[in-house]
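Lecture 7 notes: from sequence to structure.
We start with the chain below.
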Amino acid sequence: MPTTPAQLEELAAAAAAAAPVWRLSAADRARWLRAVADSLDAHAAELVEIADRETRLGTARLTGEVARTTGQLRLFASVVEEGSYLEITVDDADAAATPPRPELRRLLTGVGPVAVFSASNFPFAFSVAGGDTASALAAGNPVVVKAHSGHPELSRRTAEIAIEALRAAGAPEGSLALIEGREAGNALVRHPVIRAAGFTGSLSGGRALFDLASGRVDPIPFYGELGSVNPVVLTAAAVEARGADLASGLVGSFTLGVGQFCTKPGVVFVPGGTGFEDAVAAAVAPVPGGPLLTDRITGAFPDGIRALLSDPSTEVIAHGAETPEGARPVVLATDAAAVAARPETLLEEVFGPLTLLVRYSDEEELHAALRAVPGSLTATLHAEASDEVGETLDLLQQRAGRVLFAGWPTGVAVTWSQQHGGPWPATTSLHTSVGATAIRRFLRPVAYQDAPQHLLPVPLRDTSLAHTPHRRNGKLVLP
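Predicted structure tokens for the same chain:
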């Protein structure tokens, strides 16, 4: 049932009351995050059964996703304990400086209650207890999650388990809440208690919420992951050296999860006349598709194919195996000149098991097309050591947050160094939504000038600095 305005007010008030408690103790935050992870693991079989019924993603994939989700929670617990995310900086007073310098102590602190919008394609890892929620909680902020309509029962049950785990671990009421319904989601972004929002979903939906967040009397940051074609470039030398392996790798990547990964390689630049298209056609022929996540996505997939085929340069070169239910894999082809001339048609993301091969004849043609590629989460370059690829690489890294030199972009490691974000329209910011530094989205800097020790936040006091990485008078200090 959609959340009513009165219910939203109650949940927002509880989140506001919980916020100061979440900022107090790093040790408590870490413990609370691990309590949620442990409880989700304990209920994994139950949750996977619900998720499979609602999303049809399969128990193997979903079981792995639960593990990824609880791993994220535990990673952020360790991030909180390690302390460098606070970016603590101290400049001692110096009366002899010109002008005289006061003492300044600076750190990052939680922004306040955060709105999180669940994604359809990752019902655990980008949903109720997923990365946005984990990083917002780790930063010291209560979270209000808007459930995705594609898996409502799973959202409710996950929220129940997580909320009970937080309660049992001693976290304050209002630490985590769930709302449902589009109108409630819009109202959540506009609610004055909410200080930031995280979103993973469509370009149109994300842009609408982004505009709501920006249009508030007090605008708030909106961290949206929206659309991405994830360009891939193959050189002639790479195709000659390992064309069959590249073809099978591409097929495995763009059909993974029935093509519903945000990092799916959607546009692949291939040298003409190398036989790579035939290799892809052979590799995809036995690969089945499957059901898509929602009726809306199911309806949009053939519409996306038709939109690409409306361009006179585009043709179908291969299909996957007959698929009785859902989407059948398809490979289309066009040429680089057409992409450079009509990117608004040919570089539209199509969610589902489709990839577009773009033939190029030389580097000049390739680079002209690459300049038309919009911002993406990833870019991949398959080349040989003998290739001169400096300009190509420069164009790719301008357009993506993660550049791969081997393998395929589907699959995002949850680590300290991960960058899952890119220029618009991939995301609305420069920050990552996966990995340790995702916490930075939900923090703000505060500096304290000439503050007495007892009035400083605990992490800035001298007794804490002895145990926390920080910078003092420009020099890095490690405990």
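Points to note: The chain has a mean pLDDT of 97. The radius of gyration is 24 Å.
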